[in-house]
């Protein structure tokens, strides 16, 4: 039943226009659900996503900023968006270069809130 729930969350995230790949990752870096359109080292992707989000949250605390919404990594051809999804999970998504980052960000935050409430 939990696997089905993760699968539904992944389906909703992948349906966001501009999302090429994504994973639902525990805060300690274990991938619970995924859709990847490319070969990659999945354990490292999960672990590094969790590390990046935790580091950004620590930085936010140090500079005494308001709560973190997401972390964005931009390359020439893709964007990686990582956002917390409640106390136990995060979403890491790889966006296409044609994605509208503002629109994807808003939809990703809405999905993250639903995941946080459900889990």
Describe, in plain words, how this protein is organized in 3D.
- It is a single chain.
- The protein is an alpha+beta fold.
- The chain has a single domain, classed as Beta-Lactamase, CATH 3.30.450.30.
- The protein is built from three helices and five strands; from the N terminus they run H-E-E-H-E-E-E-H.
- It has a five-stranded antiparallel β-sheet, with helices on both faces.
- It starts with a helix and ends with a helix.
Provide a short characterization of the protein structure:
The chain has 119 residues and is of the alpha+beta class. The protein has helices at residues 2-14, 42-62, 101-118, and strands at 19-26, 31-35, 71-74, 79-85, 89-95.
Question: Which descriptors would you attach to this protein?
Answer:
26% strand, globular, alpha+beta, 119 residues, Beta-Lactamase, five-stranded antiparallel sheet
Number of helices: 3
Briefly, what CATH class? Alpha Beta
CATH topology: Beta-Lactamase
Distance between the termini: 13 Å
CATH architecture: 2-Layer Sandwich
Topology:
Layout: H1 2-14, E1 19-26, E2 31-35, H2 42-62, E3 71-74, E4 79-85, E5 89-95, H3 101-118
Antiparallel strand pairs: 1-2, 1-5, 3-4, 4-5
């Amino acid at each position: 039943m939990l696997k089905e729930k993760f699968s539904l969350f992944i389906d909703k995230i992948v349906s966001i226009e501009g999302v090429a790949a994504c994973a639902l990752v525990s805060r300690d870096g274990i991938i619970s659900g995924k859709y990847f359109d490319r070969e990659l080292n999945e354990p490292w992707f999960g672990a590094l996503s969790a590390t990046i989000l935790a580091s950004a949250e620590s930085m936010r605390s140090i500079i005494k900023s308001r709560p973190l919404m997401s972390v964005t990594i931009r390359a020439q051809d893709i964007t990686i968006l990582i956002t917390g999804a409640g106390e136990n999970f995060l979403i890491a998504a790889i966006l296409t270069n044609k994605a509208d980052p503002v629109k994807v960000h808003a939809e990703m935050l809405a999905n993250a809130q639903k995941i946080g409430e459900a889990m």
